[in-house]
Amino acid sequence: ILFKLISIIIETPAAFPDTVKEKEAPTPGEDIHLESSIPHTDSGIGEEQVANILNGAELETSTGPDAMSELLSTLSNEVKKSQESLTENPSEILKSAPSISSISQTKGINVKEILKSLVAAPVEIAECGPEPVPYPDPALKREAQAILPMQFHSFDRSVVVPVKKPPPGSLAVTTVGATAAGSGLPTGSTSNIFAATGATPKSMINTTGAVDSGSSSSSSSSSFVNGATSKNLPAVQTVAPMPEDSAENMSITAKLERALEKVAPLLREIFVDFAPFLSRTLLGSHGQELLIEGLVCMKSSTSVVELVMLLCSQEWQNSIQKNAGLAFIELINEGRLLCHAMKDHIVRVANEAEFILNRQRAEDVHKHAEFESQCAQYAADRREEEKMCDHLISAAKHRDHVTANQLKQKILNILTNKHGAWGAVSHSQLHDFWRLDYWEDDLRRRRRFVRNAFGSTHAEALLKAAIEYGTEEDVVKSKKTFRSQAIVNQNAETELMLEGDDDAVSLLQEKEIDNLAGPVVLSTPAQLIAPVVVAKGTLSITTTEIYFEVDEDDPAFKKIDTKVLAYTEGLHGKWMFSEIRAVFSRRYLLQNTALEVFMANRTSVMFNFPDQATVKKVVYSLPRVGVGTSYGLPQARRISLATPRQLYKSSNMTQRWQRREISNFEYLMFLNTIAGRTYNDLNQYPVFPWVLTNYESEELDLTLPGNFRDLSKPIGALNPKRAVFYAERYETWEDDQSPPYHYNTHYSTATSTLSWLVRIEPFTTFFLNANDGKFDHPNRTFSSVARSWRTSQRDTSDVKELIPEFYYLPEMFVNSNGYNLGVREDEVVVNDVDLPPWAKKPEDFVRINRMALESEFVSCQLHQWIDLVFGYKQRGPEAVRALNVFHYLTYEGSVNLDSITDPVLREIPEAYFIRDPHTFLLTKDFIKAMEAQIQNFGQTPSQLLIEPHPPRSSAMHLCFLPQSPLMFKDQMQQDVIMVLKFPSNSPVTHVAANTLPHLTIPAVVTVTCSRLFAVNRWHNTVGLRGAPGYSLDQAHHLPIEMDPLIANNSGVNKRQITDLVDQSIQINAHCFVVTADNRYILICGFWDKSFRVYSTETGKLTQIVFGHWDVVTCLARSESYIGGDCYIVSGSRDATLLLWYWSGRHHIIGDNPNSSDYPAPRAVLTGHDHEVVCVSVCAELGLVISGAKEGPCLVHTITGDLLRALEGPENCLFPRLISVSSEGHCIIYYERGRFSNFSINGKLLAQMEINDSTRAILLSSDGQNLVTGGDNGVVEVWQACDFKQLYIYPGCDAGIRAMDLSHDQRTLITGMASGSIVAFNIDFNRWHYEHQNRY
């Protein structure tokens, strides 16, 4: 009965673990009534095994009789409770435990009966199997059917553990293995775990032995699954019974042998292993111990009868009765734990399986989605690529169309010009229109005017009426409506590290492009920023080029006036990487999202991008040029991305300015450039100071301090009365929506820039476009310099500073296109700008204004103006103290347009939108309004420094530095330094002084009439003559040392050019050119119509250049750049000129050393009717000026366009010498001693006539002074602008044939007709007005 009770106890938690959680399982007790006999099903474990396991468990857990009795009483109470619940509510039990079909009520049953039932025929076993109890509630059945398979369906393999010598605590493990295999418990049969021997042997082996565990597990699991899911929930399937006849004939021993055949060895092994324990617990009938030997001997026995006898013996019964209590309690607890553990295990494994399956399903879904997205991405990429190809093709078509139009116009100009093949004076247009070209010189001045095909007098333009201008209060009111945002704090920026090079980062890695399909490295939406035009489009970068293609379908683009677009370059742009010279980060609308790219053709183009990340990608896709070579910064991409403040700190320009190596103008231009000022955005146009205050007197004395402005104050604070007004406005500020400011207008706005430049195209068109096609009211038009100065001192809404053009562009003051600008109230017609009385013509005004800018008064104060505009007084408390605070929307960092997403917090200014109170909350509109405000206010430059700017060193401190441009010294030297006589008496017809110290051979190269050249070594000590410590005893104090090969008469063959020249050529200075490194001489005049290149080291011919149809008569070289590259121009009797490119790297004409035999000219310049006799080329201005034997002089661009003829006075017909300075002076010497000075734009500025027959002319590097020499042997110095004579040197005994200046402009070397050279001391500073007045 104990066995049966235990079987019930163990089954109960497994059968309904969820429903009976709080109740303990029933324990053995006297009053339990069992209703029917217990069927035998395969539980997979033998009785002996269990008994031994129980006894093994007791070893660990028995704690003495007290504990045992206590536990027993607890158990009996629990059993009573559970029995009551059984009798009270049998249906509940049935519901919760459908697996319990019947419970036997057998009182006092003994072991013999159990054995009888064990060895009973298997047929009986099959017959007495219980019928499954149907579910009383169909819903419950459905629920059970739904729950059970779901809970366990993934648990498809059982854990079978071999049970050899199980340790005492391993009951849970073993039973999990066993019961999992025969897991019929939940499916409706009440199996008895101790009735194992009633099952067929095969099933026992399957479940307990490790031999056949694979098949057992699969069969049991399948039976479980089938059983669980079938409609009637049958019991676990059993093995087919033995045939009846063999069962009948067997003896009981045989039957026992047969039944226990397979399990007996296991039982024996258990008895032997546990012999010491069993010998103590199995007591004889009189309490005596059994001998160990009796148990051990069972190992060798083969009969099961001994086993059965032992199990049926009185000792076994006694032992069980004695030890059962604790062992049963242990067993019950173990069973309960086992059931819970097994259930948890099954659930966990099921969940894990479900998780794995779900994960696999999710992976499948994910892979499928990934595949689909990759397909879609691939298709999109292909579409994008096709679109890009279409875009590039259409862009190329547009570009070709634009280029073709330009070429057509160029050819038309060349042919129909009055000097062209089809031209005649009568054919020339009645009115030639001109526009300012975008070409910049080295100081970023735009001075060149070119023919304007779109020019007109704008006769249709009206004048604005006075009523169209709002009052100042209206303007202020419209500007006050923004609420302020905190202005960005001005921490010192992190230092820019110039060590190392981050540009080694590979292009692709930086841009995160894995595989480049096709040639386009980067393509991004961008805006082309040009004056008054912002054009949306696409910027594409390949490995060698940049393309920009405007989006012509953009509604904003369609609205732009075609007249404005005609002046906008780059709408269908293409730029080669090889042409890029500098890349600067720029701001647009106060956002750091733009780039400005400077090209080799001296123009620039500006783009705005969606964000800073794109800017970085673009910079890393472009060549590594930095910000160019001018500012002493490395050519690295990080320099292009550096902030203005970092550029300022890292550059050497401030030190150079302090040492007076560069002019005030050049330094201000540098500050403007790095602070983000650009010609491409009129709101950020470069800003220059007013420097003079006297615009009234007849003569201007630049030595009087009273004529100069106080540069330590902003323009608004110069007038004390007006300064008080501004200070009060700031102190009595009441508007909560905006921070206080002194000025409601700015010193630099698009409007003011256009009003200054309204007389020259393309600014006239821009002005009319911005003002609805109307010129300003005549009273408001810029019509007088003096009036503009007065207004800027009196009007409370005018604090304009100047633009750089005031210091170099006289054409801006002339109404050359004849615009109708109206009549002022005082009945004066507005035409050219009224100049101060001290300036007789615009060129005088610009020249004197520039002299004032470079004067000592300005040099001493300029750093204070820099503090106001670019420095520490630009913002913060210092700006308040200096009366220098402008509207907050003019400052960098005051607003981030990207961050404006919440329109509720802000209002759109009334001035820009008429709005309904319910519909005005439009973010885009708000941003547009904000942009309009920023455009309106002007923009303050980026702040370059947050400490005071250092002052410029005084000119006196620097007077002994040899390189300084301003050295006011006493004239201690003699005029003539030295005379060097060559052995040959042949006249020296060409002198080239390439004396820069960094050259391998600083030298003066001379060439005689007989084509004998000499490379005379130059010694730079002459620069220090007169300096402290100077001594005549030092070795080389004559600056020129004669070429030893000529002096010794030893290597004359290395110095003689023997090739024959054409007999009709007169050898003069124009026949030779020496390269900047002194290593090559170019000579023309050969009979085969070529010019030739010779090495000065060996005298050997290195290149012959053909191109002309007749003898080449003159050569000229431009100034050379880094690397020694320069332009060479050849003029010929065929009346044309060819422009060539000299490669300093390959030392040949042309770019490609492989095609050096047949180099191609860069341009063919036509227009002359006669032999070309003189030519000069200036690379900085991009101009070639040439003179024909019988006139005239023509001006061409280096791209081949004929700009104009320089028409001299009537008697100036036959030009012979030309000299052009980068400052824009063109001096031409005509036959019979006549000189003319032209501006590069063709205006005759001065003329003179002298008696000498001049053979050589020379302009100083600043273009201010002219040096001449001729047959009289006299060197004379003139002021270039008006030919005022400055100095005459003592005459020489022979005529002067050639001249050149040393690099420091301190020594003049002349080639004489007598075959000698003379070196003169020259110091242009001594004729400087400040030197004359002060020193």
UniProtKB/TrEMBL annotation:
InterPro entries: BEACH_dom, BEACH_dom_sf, BEACH_Domain, NBCH_WD40, NBEA-like_DUF1088, PH-BEACH_dom, PH-like_dom_sf, WD40/YVTN_repeat-like_dom_sf. One of its GO terms (biological process) is intracellular protein localization. Residues 515-623 form the BEACH-type PH domain. One of its GO terms (cellular component) is cytosol. Residues 642-952 form the BEACH domain. SUPFAM superfamilies: BEACH domain, PH domain-like, WD40 repeat-like. Keywords: Membrane, Repeat, WD repeat. Pfam families: Beach, DUF1088, NBCH_WD40, PH_BEACH. PANTHER family: BEIGE/BEACH-RELATED (PTHR13743), NEUROBEACHIN (PTHR13743:SF62). One of its GO terms (molecular function) is protein kinase binding. Residues 209-228 are annotated as: Disordered. Interacts with RII subunit of PKA. Residues 213-223 have a biased composition (Low complexity). Gene3D superfamilies: BEACH domain, Pleckstrin-homology domain (PH domain)/Phosphotyrosine-binding domain (PTB), YVTN repeat-like/Quinoprotein amine dehydrogenase. Signal peptide: none annotated. It is a peripheral membrane protein. It comes from the Eukaryota. The gene is LOC104985510. This is Neurobeachin. It is found in: Membrane. It comes from Bison bison bison.
